[in-house]
Amino acid sequence: ASDGSLLGDLGHTPLSKKEGVKWQRPRLSRQALMRCCLVKWILSSTAPQGSDSSDGELELSAVRHQPEGLDQLQAQTKFTKKELQSLYRGFKNECPTGLVDEDTFKLIYAQFFPQGDATTYAHFLFNAFDADGNGAIHFEDFVVGLSILLRGTVHEKLKWAFNLYDINKDGYITKEEMLAIMKSIYDMMGRHTYPILREDTPAEHVERFFQKMDRNQDGVVTIEEFLETCQKDENIMSSMQLFENVI
Length: 247
What we know:
The chain has helices at residues 37-44, 70-76, 81-94, 102-112, 119-129, 139-151, 154-165, 175-189, 201-213, 223-232, 234-244; strands at residues 99-100, 137-138, 172-174, 220-222. The chain folds into two domains: 69-152, Recoverin, domain 1 (Orthogonal Bundle), CATH 1.10.238; 154-246, Recoverin, domain 1 (Orthogonal Bundle). The chain has a two-stranded antiparallel ribbon. Helix 4 packs across helix 5. It is mainly alpha-helical.
């Protein structure tokens, strides 16, 4: 049922179709299932000790920190002024220099996905956020990306996903690029999937992906092919929710 999803066949064939056992989503910690690991990381430094914010909610505590151009950021994103202030406070607490580097991303994802190896996925995700490729992410770029991932339209999220898969940023997705991303996600998820994944599962998924996406069979997927196929495929669209859980 999840054939062709953006994350691959994490669940394979639902067990409800085999042996009468109900299929279960990958079992992850509650923190890992937060809508956005990056937001949870930011807010953990601003929430009072012992408190626990609910899934997907921002800790809207009174703050004195304020990013430059707050009104402009509010216009660029779908966050409220209070949400931006809260995110900025946490961002500055965690990154006093005002910049996030790749090593920080790796530490974040190692924390939220301790059952696997998140190093490579964190590398790819960092590069997707690092639009200018200078090796550091400013707060402004950080929240613009989060806004798309958490509250963007389907079209905006798919464009962002295409950018993630387009590792060398040449405007095309190759099988090699797709396989690298897929393998990094499987590595990060570790053994907390059911049934246990086979090593060749990512490659099998990539083959199915290209059969659906590569309309003219030229070996690469363009942004147009990606958007058109994804928006017409229910299995791919349903996988976007799971995709958000590893951001």
